[in-house]
Amino acid sequence: MISTGTHSLQNGFNASEEFKKKALISDPGIYETAEDRLAFWAERAATLSWFKTWDTVLEWNPPFAKWFDGGKINAAYNCLDRHLEGSRADKKAIIFEGENGDTRELTYQELYDEVCKFANVLRTLGVKKGDVVTIYMPMIPEAVVAMLACARIGAPHSVVFGGFSPDALRDRINDAHSKIVITADGSYRRGKILPLKENVDEALQNVTTVEKVIIVNRTGLDINVCSERDFWYHDVMKDVSPVCPAEETDAEDILFILYTSGTTGKPKGVVHTTGGYLTGVATTHEYIFDIKDDDVYWCTADIGWITGHSYLVYGPLTNGTTVFMFEGTPDYPEKDRYWELVSKYGVTILYTAPTAIRTFMKWGQHYPEKHNLSSLRLLGSVGEPINPEAWMWYYNHIGGERCPIVDTWWQTETGMIMITPLPGITEMKPGSCTVPFPGIKAEILNRSGQPVAHDEVGYVAITEPWPAMLRTIYGDDKRYKDTYWGNWPGRYFAGDGAKVDGDGYFWIIGRVDDVINVSGHRIGTAEVESALVEHSAVAEAACIGKNHDVKGQAIAAFVTLREGYVASDILVQELKNHVAAKIGAIARPDEIHLTPELPKTRSGKIIRRILRDIAEGRPIGDTTTLADESAVIALQSIKNS
Ligand code: 7RM
């Protein structure tokens, strides 16, 4: 049996001989070759299409990096134009299925035409190189078109997940000073419609920069259309030329900003640039997913997250892959929707999250068993540690014991997969994301930057720059420096705890900062706390991540009330709804405990460890730093009541 405690290699899993024989990367020598990192990445970059090659591979002035500086490149050109010359012009770029079963297919030629037209629309509406475009859309092909159209004209995009609230959207628009928002009337969600345009209208009430809104008609929902500001996508796309030369952007021009949660209440605008990012995502996508020309590749992530950016859009399209894109959820209309889709479209590679796998486990194997999943040849996992039980279930019941699983560790900030198996080479151990990708240097360090011994817990560090690394936090170089490079100068602090076993395999434990990973989505405790204290009944709030069977972590909040407010179940419900409305449904706390006092140190810092012990029903550990023991007694009685 596999146990996470011993990690003995003899318990590992290997790809079948058949898989290995056909694998794109089958020579372990790649790790040695890539020891010359700059040569390795330069050789990979050279497989992209450049208008002008770079002057230097890397300029590293820690913590600021420039990759392929002096090079001229366009991301949309690499995703589209260069596939049009040969037989790939008529190859399917996107196969789409909507929540209601409607389908669409776009060849590379058709996607190219649509992107060029929309890029011309953006130019006509006044979008210039360097202008940030906010995209707030459902999982429909137009979302990809919008991203690539921005890339084509050198306008960085900022995609905001469609599940975020008007407030969250507003903060992101304001931080990026966007002049334009691309949205849809609504978004289907389990048979209901989320009112995206209504949310945009609400968000824009407190925004001064936005001049134009473009709306895709997805649902036919009745919406407000302001005559000067709002444009229907189908109107502005009429009679537009499909000829739009790609902007020759600098390798270091911003391709996109993506907001992610951190330790403060203010989300960070992670900045990714063009040449290095594309080199990183194209290489990792091709090698890790063993991409062949006839694959039908399905990444289930929403385009609102980094996985959607890197492994639904930029990686696969740069590689000329056929991407399957799905708008809906796994349980609508039935709990076998994913498996129906795999068999209907002959999906060969499936990339999803542990939380989804645990959900499928809970629903039972009879759902996948109803369908023919024999087209699958490779599986992927991302977003949080995958527990060995879920790994085994995925391997047995989805992969039919035939498909290697690539457990890929990376972050919004890293842009690309960093620690992962190469499926034709690396022996897999359930629960371990295995080893750093060729050309990537990762270590486990202690607080003072010393490497820890095998099997000892420390912090994940990336010790050399990599091409898809974030370049800064939008508008906040200092926060970039302090957050990621402040602990160990020159080495990147990832914010994860982990250990390395005797075989050099990485075992990620989870976040060590105040970030909760709910179903693979990052939520800052500070964000939830500041949403709570905005409610008139709340005096103080503290949040923690509580272990959860399916979601990995769930949010539990402890709240003290202002004078004059009385604790009640109705108030608890109201506070949960309030957080969901302020941030988005993903941030809705599972539990809110109303308590007369929070456990604090003498200097007034909330001791979250004690809250975690209470929430998870453990005996409370060390309380010597507590200012007042009565806080804990009060909390315990609440928990037991
Ligand atoms: C891609 C993504 C990043 C955080 C990261 C980890 C956790 C992601 C894995 C994982 C264990 C994995 N970006 N994480 N992948 N933990 N094994 N394979 O998820 O910015 O949204 O989150 O997610 O804690 O720091 S993210």
Characterization of the model:
There is one protein chain. The chain has 20 helices and 30 strands. The protein is of the alpha/beta class. It has an eight-stranded mixed beta sheet, with helices on both faces. Strands 5-4-17-16-18-19-20 form a seven-stranded mixed beta sheet, with helices on both faces. Strand 26 and strand 27 form a beta hairpin. Helix 7 crosses helix 8 and helix 13 packs across helix 15. The protein is globular. It binds 5'-O-(acetylsulfamoyl)adenosine.
Q: How are the SSEs placed, and which strands pair?
A:
Blueprint: H1 17-22, H2 29-33, H3 37-45, E1 56-61, E2 64-69, E3 72-73, H4 75-79, E4 92-97, E5 103-107, H5 108-124, E6 133-136, H6 141-153, E7 157-159, H7 166-176, E8 180-184, E9 187-189, E10 192-194, H8 196-204, E11 212-216, E12 230-232, H9 233-236, E13 249-250, E14 254-260, E15 268-273, H10 275-288, E16 296-299, H11 306-318, E17 322-326, H12 337-345, E18 349-352, H13 354-363, H14 366-369, E19 378-381, H15 388-398, E20 405-407, E21 442-445, E22 458-462, E23 472-473, H16 477-485, E24 492-500, E25 506-511, E26 515-518, E27 521-524, H17 525-533, E28 538-548, E29 552-561, H18 569-582, E30 591-594, H19 608-615, H20 630-640
Parallel strand pairs: 4-17, 6-7, 6-8, 7-14, 8-11, 11-12, 16-17, 16-18, 18-19, 19-20, 29-30
Antiparallel strand pairs: 1-2, 3-13, 4-5, 9-10, 14-15, 15-23, 21-22, 22-24, 24-25, 26-27, 28-29
The protein binds 5'-O-(acetylsulfamoyl)adenosine.
5'-O-(acetylsulfamoyl)adenosine binds next to α11, β24 and β25.
